[in-house]
Amino acid sequence: MPFIRAASDKLTTCAMLAAAGIPTPAGCTLPAGGSIPTGFRLPAVLKARESAGCDGLRIIRNRSDFVTPEIDSRLECHISGIPGSVCCLCRNDSIVPLLPFEQMFTHAQQPVYIGGRVAHEDYHARMQSLAVRSIEALNKATQATARGWVGVDMILGSRDDGNDDRVLEINPRLTTSFIGLSRGQQGGLIYPILNHMHGGAIHLTPWNIEACEFSLA
What we know:
Elements lengths: L1 H6 L2 H10 L7 E4 L13 E5 L9 E3 L12 E5 L4 E10 L2 E4 L3 E5 L7 E6 L5 H19 L5 E9 L9 E6 L5 H7 L6 H8 L11 H4 L1 E2 L2
Antiparallel strand pairs: 1-4, 2-3, 2-4, 5-6, 5-7, 5-9, 7-8, 8-11, 9-10
């Protein structure tokens, strides 16, 4: 499926989003065995190019942090801000954003993803809008339609107008946020997902915000 192929390649995703006016971090491909290009600004983030999620994620604050990649990777500028994600239920005629999450990482030299919690309500509309616009842009670029569960990872900048927010990647699969979101719905999310996929309306109960927080640690 063209959408899945594009979303599974971080370089392709960012190029298509940027062409559609969706802000993404500046970056480049780093082939297996490659080194940091001369003049590339640090800190930077190194991650596997063809994957979905944090595979091979490494923060490079100085050149001594760099480890030569064994597979083709994406090197991109490190963006300061709040890491977040929005999961959407997608089908041919609709993209329905669910409750936005703030992603939680360890404070180690090399951060590890350890879970999530519901983002502050002031960010909800901004995050949901960016997620929907990103999926719409990839739909248009691939001339295909996302179907099922799609997660959009992003960094929220400090500007209230969202102009320094950045989309990091699109994950065309069931993401770990499903754990928290499902806990936050009375009866879970399996039925709403299946009903939506078969053309029905989505009926969600009021979110249990406290139950949504989850930890992988």
